[in-house]
Every structure is written in structure tokens, then in C-alpha cells.
Amino acid sequence: MRQFIFFFSAFILSFKNGYASYSQKIPNQIGIANARVCVVIDKEVNCVGRNVYGEAINIKFEKKIKQIALGDNHTCILDEDGMWCFGKNENGQTRVPTNLINPIKIVAGANHTCALDDEGVKCWGDNRFRQIEVPNDLSKTFQISASNQTTCALGNDGVRCWGDDSYGQNDVPKNLIQPKEVAVGYQHVCALDLKEVKCWGRNQFGQSSPPISLINPRNLSLGYAHTCVIDDVGVKCWGANDYHEKDVPDHIKNPRQLIAGGRHSCVIDSENVKCWGANYYGELNLSTRILNPQRVSAGDNHVCAIDDEGVKCWGLNDFHQLDVPTGLHHPRQVSTGARFTCVLHDKGVNCWGRKDYSEIAVPKNLIHPYQISSGSNHTCVLDEEGVKCWGFESYGLTKVPSNLVKPFQISTGSQHTCALDEEGVKCWGANGYKQLEVPSNLINPREVSCGRDYTCALDDQGVKCWGKNNRGQIEVPTHLVNPRSLSTGDDHACVLDDQGVKCWGSLTGGRLDIPLKIVHPRQISAGNEYTCIIDDFGVKCWGENSFGQSHSPPHFKNNQSLSFN
Question: The pTM is what?
Fold first, then answer.
């Protein structure tokens, strides 16, 4: 039986100027899809970004990888043993045919896959636009390309395309003289013809109008609505620029491989991998690494940690909640909300991300804040004057009760907040599930944590929870041994005790599947449908991983080599 070795985070060994640097081995190749980037080094592939169907693979193969191809929700690998596909298979796009004979090239469209083998071109998967119906009269083929619902081949009789023809993608120009490369984008196609780039198909953003300034262009690659090429000067891109697709980094040195996909692009140069463009799912976060983490916070679908270098974030980035601003002075605490992030540092509080409910509108009247907690759409801090809150105002979330007596801990949930003061636990906000109704039997509570419509507290007798219980989230296990740290997620809760990590509540998403290899855990944070901890090996996350939020970056200790999680 063929064996695959799955692992978390690999390859990234050192960093320079904010980009991933592979100081021991530069990647052999890159794969790109709409919201995913994969890098290959020898036998290993590591993907970041969207991972709804298990398409963002992290695998060590037995044989050297020859090629990688990414579709919308599937990933295919060609190695010395053959071809292997992973991810969504609704249209049979990952069901590799058994009749492939020595495949030498693989490509993937949105939901279809093709291979070039000794017998020619073979395609499988979605066929709504006849994109897998290879022409019977196709001549000997040298190269294939696919994207979205279109497939093209370059052979003895030139370029042939089939599949979706909504914008004339299949109408190959008759003025091609000697094409030597073809590339398919979302709804446009380009070919390298002698020393020119010629494009056809959709052109609403100028993606099919190459500049005349190209000098010896090569390595043509197309995205959703942009086109890129390597020439004698460097990397050049044209077309759409809503997500900075054309803003090529200015420090690329001797580019050797270029690939565009979706609304972003990546290049391998003499130093490392460099990517630019859209980053909604953290697909460009190849450079994220963790150096001695001190704090971690799990939000709805993104995670942030504080380490020796500052604040590092990964996961969903639809409101730029991963885009850590400059100017944070010695970050001390980080707290992640639904689609925003806040950091408490030496000079105050900074928040970034979504602002629909004024989540990032930090009040100017904070006086030496020393604790912060972010809920779904609101944030509270403790400062010298007490508790101050901002953001979503419904349910009285930002109206702090006047009866707090020297509060020393706060916790924010989805639509409620609790504080621990000298008199005990006091809560305010939504109360549809009695999450504000603190039990009278709490004895010396020392920690409180708010989930989605439920609350838990740690007292002298252990952990007690109240509020919503549709998934068993308030049914505390009886086998806790000296619990000391508590965190509540959407509808699951976790604690650290003398035996390690224990969680209860909803089973969906694998959020209760605690990793076996956890050594001396010291902090825990429960997110939407996943959990993260810090232990001796760094940050570990498990559970839902649709946006790469549970794919924790590699951990380093000082200048040591990579530690795999």
C-alpha cells in the first residue's frame, strides 16, 4: 500500500524582507489556485490557504515530485510513481484514470483534470462545457494548459482549445506563427509566439492586451483577469489590479518560475518564493513562522500569535484581519474577533479588520490598558479606570455595568460580556439562553470565559458552565484534574489541567480531536470550530480548517532549525 506522510507546515527555514526564504533548498515549483498556494521541495508539498475539501495538502511523498496542478478545490501531484489527486471529487476530477501511460504533464481546471502521456491528452472530471472532450484529430501534443472550464493543447498543428467558449477562448488567432507555449486563464488564453505574447478571449481589464515593451518573454501564466510573464527585465503583469495583481515586488532576483492563479501570483527567484495579490484565505502567508510564541488567540476563522518578532496571523483574511500594521510597540496581548484583530502593546491598543460595527474604533480615553478581550463584533479592555467597551452596541454590549468593584478579568463572547471583580462574576449583553445568569454556587471564581450564548467559570471546585447547551458545551466532564486555564469557543470549551488538554461540546469539525503530541501546554484558545494551544513545540491548532486557520505555522527556537508541529 502506498504511504503518504502528512505533516503541518514545512519548508520555510529563514526569512528576509517579509517573504519566505528557503535557505537550505529553494522550492522546485509552485502551484496556485483561486485561494490556495502550494510549494514543492523534492518529495514534499506544503499548501496554505482555503482548505474546504482537504485540497490544501501537506504531504511527504515516497518519490520525488515532478509536477503539481491545482484546481478550484482539488490538488494533483505527479511523482515518479504516477499521479495522485486530493480534494473535492464531485465531478470525478480527483479520480485518476487507470489507463495513464507514463504521464509527463498534468493540469487542472476549475473542476476537471488533464494529463499528457505516451498516448496523448486525457481529461476527466466536469464536462458541462465539453472541456474534457479531447478532439479526435489532435496532433502530437507537447504542452497542455487548463483553467476554469477551458482546456488547450500545443502540438504539431499549433494551438487547439476546447471547452467554455463564452468569450471566444476557443477561437485561436490565425496569426500565430510558431507558438511555443500556451496558457489558459479564467476566460482568456495567451500564447508565446516567437518573441511576442498574443492573447484572446475576455479583455474587460486588459488581460488580453500585452504591453509592447516585453523583451524575450517566457514562462507565461494567467490568473482570473490578469496575465504575467518573465522577460529579460524581470516579471511583468497586466490586466486587473483590484487586488494588486499587477504590483510585482521590486526585489525579485533572477526569476526562474512564475505562476498566476485567481487574483494572485507567485515567483521562485534565486532567493526564495515571493507572492503578491489577493490574500483572503491567507494563501500568501508562506512567510509566516513562529519564533518562541508567548500568546495565541483564535477568532472565528483566523488566528494570531505574539512571538519574539511581533504579531503573526493566519487563516481567513477577507477584511484584512491578518494584515498586521506597523508601529506596534512590544505587543503584550492579542485578541481576535469574528473578522478583526486587536493588540494591546506598550503604547495602547490597535485594531484592524472589519469595521461595520466600529469594531476597530478604539476609544481615545483608554488609560494604561492592561487586558483586552474581543468578541464577535465588540471589544472590551481593562484600564486604570475599569472596563471600557466598543463595537457592536446591541444588547447593551458597550454599556458597562456601574456595579463592578475593582474588576480584574474580562471575557467577551458572541453577544455578551462577563467581568470578574472582587464580588464575583458579573455579565451583561444578550441573555436569550440565560448566559448572564451566574450560578449562586460559584466559590472563589478566578477565571471566566464567554462562548457563543454560554459562559464558563473556573472556581475552587473546578469548572462550571451555564447558558445554551445544544451541543453539550455546558456539560463539564467529571474527570478534570486541577483545571487551571479555561477557554470557550462557539459551542465547545477546553481547559488545561494536570493531565494536559481536555475539551467538550460539539464534535463537528474535529474540534475535540486533541493531538496526541502535546508537551507542557501553557495557553489555550478556543475559536469558532477549532482550538489552538501553545506548548513546548510552539503553536498547535486542530479542528475546522476551511481557511487554513488550523494550519499553524512552523515553530523556531532562537536560530534552531525547523520544528514540525
Answer: 0.79
